[in-house]
Amino acid sequence: MSDTASPHAYVHLTAGGVSVVLDVTGGRLPAIVHWGAALGDLNVADTLALAQANIEPPAGNVVDLPVRLSILPEHHTGWVGKPGIAGHRDGVDWSPLFTTTALTVDGAEHRPSPDAELVSAGAGTVRVTAHDAVADLGLTLDVELLPSGLLRARAEVTNTGSSFYVLDGLQLAFPVPPQAREILDFAGRWGKERTPQRRELTVGIHEREGRKGRTGPDAATVLSVGVPGFGFGRGEVWGTHVGFSGNHRHYAERLFTGFQVVGGGELLLPGEIRLSDGESYGTPWIYGAYGDGLDAQAHRFHDHLRSRPTHPRRARPVTINVWEAVYFDHDLARLTDLADRAAKLGVERYVLDDGWFRYRRNDLAGLGDWHVDETVWPNGLHPIIDHVRSLGMEFGLWFEPEMINLDSDLAREHPEWVMATGGRTPVPSRNQQVLNLGIPEAYDHILERMSAILGEYDIAYIKWDHNRDLIDAGTAPHGRAGVHDQTLATYRLMDELKRRFPGLEIESCSSGGARVDLGILERTDRVWVSDCIDPLERQQMNRWTMQLLPPELLGSHIASGTSHTTGRYHRLSFRAGTALYGHLGIEWDLATATDDENAQLAVWIDLYKRHRELLHTGTMVRADEFDPTLLVYGAVAGDRAEALFFLAYVGRSDVSPRGRFTLPGLDPDRRYRVRPVFAGEPDEGLKPPAWFNVPPQPQPTVTTPPGGGRADGLSAGSEVPGVSMTGRALAVVGLQTPASFPDDVVVLSVTEET
Ligand code: DGJ
């Protein structure tokens, strides 16, 4: 029974095979009673029983009342893990006790009642408001279960007192059941983003702080805790993702009581948030992704992103980006020739990278001077853009709006716009500094410059770069920490440009893939996964970036044979076969490609165009590895009538032959034909297994076939019958793995037989 005017209810949200049961009783902040597999219909008695079953028994030498963990963990309850709020008012009001004042579910206010009630919804939004009259703080908590089964929550705290409230942190936490004892999150560095790492969740805190002022190549990205041994297709996992592009933290914590949470929020620098009377601070969305297996977890993110009205829906255009082709060597004749060659292959978008603006002949100067360089482009960008457009391609342009070179007119005119603290210039990185977009005049200047360029030229797409960490990123005049304001200003700038230029697409690039998060994805349409385009590396980076993003958002290019970042050489079939499962592009000086390579590229581009709808709307599946040198993954159409699978040979196996692989995700009761697709020449090491059913070839009279062709007759464009099997047999029994040279991809088309 509740004797206050506070809400007194349980809320059951269920969608996409997930249930979230919230306890909003007795004037207390919402606590999650259950987050995980759907529980079916619940009545009030069921919910009360669930809540009761969740109360911990007394233990030795702890507080005398059961500790109740709310989404904003509260220290006053006896919770001795990381608290949800860290802050104070000149040393006091640091341990708030909030009392709830209102509860709304899907916008409808729930009226307080003496007996706890149950509010049931499918996907839905819960808002709880609360107040601490002693600490003079107001609080709003939003908890949402999205139709994909993805959970997300955010908090806003308001200073209702008359003195400053200094907020040091505001983070949210979701409980994780005790059987989840293994952590998976991501690390990484430039050129090798999102490398998975696993460890046991032991007592203590596993905390990943992002202090780079950008998401970072090493961001935790999705921090999951699961049943030990969880894989793509099996094992429950509970993960969290902070949808923010500035400083942030993700953590998993296990207490001495065995209680476990995953959580996160923005990481606030000292003094960054000082709330005066009536001022508020809001967290970004903190996501909770449950799944039985990592694929199921990833599908919740993918389905959510794909359901957004702003999700790019038109066919993802084949792109050429000129960076690795010309770097800073901007020459109209060369760039025009590149456009001609690209258009001939079927490329649909041409992106002019770094180097087009004043003083930008290398990476020492020019950032901030967003005027077309008159020395290199005497007639502006019109000649190249007109040419690109006349070839039927869209035009895209590179910007790095948040940065400034000290060697620029802008820095000479406004040295006070450079972020700094302590009366000194921050350590340079890539010879550049950070432009303080938190200063309204600096923000207005950049908005005006970018609008002028976008207004003058026919530009469909911005490659938006961000090439350094924010170190000593203070804001004028006193050098107070300014990362929070800078991050929000960037968001505003993107939003405003999209408002001014409807249809404009933006790629989030940051020294490659250092800005991949759902905050930036609210206003961008693609990410550049990594500056490393070596397919062996990209097999891993693309695979794991897809834990958060669907393939259509991943910039995935075919580069020159020798990788510019690793120096390794790879066959075109490996480079193109790897790039195919993403938003395809080319990043290669086509003038140096042979006629044969150009011809094969055209076939790969055609293959991409024929399958991009399937690849970009289908369900991603990744088979659990039985041999680390073979990756099996693909896209299964929503109606499961077709699929495209990839066998990526990323090393030499210690056994030969490898044995069978399976194809998960198909309809067990339907029959499918599986056959290889040869876009380019099959690698010489490919030994067709019996199930390819390659038609018998006339026996050559000499050992080497005339013309040096293959004895089995396979070549680019070969069509072989393949094999017909049920989805069940393909998932349970599988097929013998074709033998192949390492570092190659075999593409398999799977079509339903009726
Ligand atoms: C870093 C990006 O990741 C590259 O693709 C390229 O745009 C360079 N910056 C340009 O400076």
Automatic annotation (TrEMBL):
<dbReference type="Pfam" id="PF02065">
    <property type="entry name" value="Melibiase"/>
</dbReference>
<dbReference type="InterPro" id="IPR017853">
    <property type="entry name" value="GH"/>
</dbReference>
<dbReference type="GO" id="GO:0016052">
    <property type="term" value="P:carbohydrate catabolic process"/>
</dbReference>
<comment type="similarity">
    <text>Belongs to the glycosyl hydrolase.</text>
</comment>
<feature type="active site" description="Proton donor">
    <location>
        <position position="531"/>
    </location>
</feature>
<dbReference type="Pfam" id="PF16875">
    <property type="entry name" value="Glyco_hydro_36N"/>
</dbReference>
<dbReference type="InterPro" id="IPR050985">
    <property type="entry name" value="Alpha-glycosidase_related"/>
</dbReference>
<dbReference type="InterPro" id="IPR038417">
    <property type="entry name" value="Alpga-gal_N_sf"/>
</dbReference>
<dbReference type="InterPro" id="IPR002252">
    <property type="entry name" value="Glyco_hydro_36"/>
</dbReference>
<feature type="binding site">
    <location>
        <position position="430"/>
    </location>
    <ligand>
        <name>substrate</name>
    </ligand>
</feature>
<feature type="binding site">
    <location>
        <position position="509"/>
    </location>
    <ligand>
        <name>substrate</name>
    </ligand>
</feature>
<feature type="region of interest" description="Disordered">
    <location>
        <begin position="696"/>
        <end position="720"/>
    </location>
</feature>
<feature type="binding site">
    <location>
        <position position="190"/>
    </location>
    <ligand>
        <name>substrate</name>
    </ligand>
</feature>
<feature type="binding site">
    <location>
        <begin position="463"/>
        <end position="467"/>
    </location>
    <ligand>
        <name>substrate</name>
    </ligand>
</feature>
<keyword id="KW-0326">Glycosidase</keyword>
<dbReference type="InterPro" id="IPR000111">
    <property type="entry name" value="Glyco_hydro_27/36_CS"/>
</dbReference>
<feature type="binding site">
    <location>
        <begin position="353"/>
        <end position="354"/>
    </location>
    <ligand>
        <name>substrate</name>
    </ligand>
</feature>
<feature type="domain" description="Glycosyl hydrolase family 36 N-terminal">
    <location>
        <begin position="29"/>
        <end position="275"/>
    </location>
</feature>
<feature type="binding site">
    <location>
        <position position="531"/>
    </location>
    <ligand>
        <name>substrate</name>
    </ligand>
</feature>
<dbReference type="InterPro" id="IPR031704">
    <property type="entry name" value="Glyco_hydro_36_N"/>
</dbReference>
<dbReference type="GO" id="GO:0004557">
    <property type="term" value="F:alpha-galactosidase activity"/>
</dbReference>
<keyword id="KW-0378">Hydrolase</keyword>
<feature type="active site" description="Nucleophile">
    <location>
        <position position="465"/>
    </location>
</feature>
<dbReference type="InterPro" id="IPR013785">
    <property type="entry name" value="Aldolase_TIM"/>
</dbReference>
<protein>
    <recommendedName>
        <fullName>Alpha-galactosidase</fullName>
        <ecNumber>3.2.1.22</ecNumber>
    </recommendedName>
</protein>
